[in-house]
């Protein structure tokens, strides 16, 4: 019999909140983390954001088999309590954060380009397999161990609780805005869906100097969009007159809706060469007549960049 690893001999005890079936009900859960390795940091978790993806996974909704019991949470922030002998980015007491990605091969084209998230061998911070073959558990827990490469130094001036959602929701909207050039001052951007990703998309866009229109099925969200978040205008997507009046007025649209919904009316809102970026995760098919693209130079990008 092969000798046991240090992690097997002396597992690090941990506590979290786990779902044990598709009801997604969280209950106390005791488990083990690997010991802190040479390039690892151990982080005492102080806050963890709640992302819609956590709910999707705990309910086993996305077609990615959920390994129960599952401890969700992938917007993790806290304080470093232990560092390995080879760690150079952190010292004990530093503020640190972890997004969804916990490891990757570090040698493929994506990794070498700084796109570890797209590595074929990337592993998630929860509901995946750690480098030692053990199961990964997320940030709804008291502590976490991760290679320093996948942890971020957290700015001292940024509150941990308010900054946690930037580690997934934040980068999910920031990345396509930058990649598709939707951050330039003066552009007209539609944000579909208000709540979670939509909130952060509005705040980033306004910080960039973009003219923002929130598109929602809920008229009651108008005050939230304009008075609290600073959006410039508001469209009720179920109102055909409002949608018709806004036809062809937007340079781009960030669609954050996590469910099946009609895309044709959104594409009608785009100017020539406008871009529709899909960020909401759903396992339901989306349909759109292809003729809507012809003659208008509109682009539909079905992407969901993850932190």
What can you tell me about this protein's structure?
- The radius of gyration is 21 Å and the shape is elongated.
- Helices cover 20% and strands 27% of the residues.
- Strand 1 and strand 2 form a beta hairpin.
- The protein has 307 residues and is α/β, with parallel strands linked by helices.
- It has a six-stranded parallel β-sheet with strand order 12-11-10-13-14-15. Strands 8-3-4-5-9 form a five-stranded antiparallel β-sheet.
Summarize the structure in short:
Helix content is 20%, strand content 27%.
Report the principal-axis shape.
elongated
Strand order of the largest sheet: 12-11-10-13-14-15
Structural class from helices and strands?
alpha/beta
**Are there runs of 5+ residues with pLDDT below 50, and where?**
303-307
Q: Strand share of the residues?
A: 25-35%
Radius of gyration: 21 Å
Instruction: Spell out the helices and strands N to C.
Output: HEEEHEEEHEEEHHEHEHEHEHEE
Terminal CA distance reads: 40 Å
Please tell me the overall pLDDT: 89
- Percent helix, as a range, is 10-25%
The largest pleated sheet is described as:
6 strands, parallel
Supply the number of helical segments: 9
Number of strands: 15
Family: Belongs to the zinc-containing alcohol dehydrogenase family.
Protein name: Enoyl reductase (ER) domain-containing protein
Pfam families: ADH_N (PF08240), ADH_zinc_N (PF00107)
GO biological process, one term: lignin biosynthetic process
């Amino acid at each position: 019999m092969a000798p046991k690893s240090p992690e097997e001999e002396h597992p690090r005890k941990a506590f979290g909140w786990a779902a044990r079936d598709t009801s997604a009900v969280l209950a106390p859960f005791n488990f083990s983390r690997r010991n802190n390795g040479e390039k690892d940091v151990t982080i005492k978790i102080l806050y963890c954001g709640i992302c819609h993806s956590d709910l999707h996974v705990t309910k086993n909704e996305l077609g990615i088999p959920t390994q129960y019991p599952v401890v969700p949470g992938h917007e993790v922030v806290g304080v470093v309590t232990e560092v390995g002998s080879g760690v150079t980015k952190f010292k004990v007491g530093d503020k640190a954060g972890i997004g969804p990605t916990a490891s990757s091969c570090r040698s493929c084209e994506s990794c070498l380009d700084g796109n570890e998230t797209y590595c074929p061998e990337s592993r998630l911070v929860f509901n995946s397999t750690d480098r030692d073959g053990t199961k990964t558990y997320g940030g709804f827990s008291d502590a976490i161990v991760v290679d320093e490469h996948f942890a971020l130094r957290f700015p001292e001036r940024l509150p941990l609780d308010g900054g946690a959602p930037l580690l997934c929701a934040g980068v999910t909207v920031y990345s396509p805005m930058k990649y598709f050039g939707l951050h330039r001052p003066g552009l007209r951007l539609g944000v579909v869906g208000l709540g979670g990703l939509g909130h952060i998309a509005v705040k980033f866009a306004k910080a960039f100097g973009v003219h923002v229109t929130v598109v929602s099925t809920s008229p009651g969200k108008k005050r939230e969009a304009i008075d609290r978040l600073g959006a410039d205008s508001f469209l009720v997507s179920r109102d055909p007159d409002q949608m018709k009046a806004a036809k062809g007025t937007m340079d781009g649209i960030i669609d954050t809706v996590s469910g099946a919904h009609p895309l044709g009316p959104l594409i009608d809102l785009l100017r020539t060469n406008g871009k529709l970026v899909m960020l909401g995760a759903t396992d339901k098919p989306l349909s759109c007549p292809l003729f809507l693209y012809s003659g208008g130079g509109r682009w539909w990008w079905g992407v969901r960049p993850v932190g």
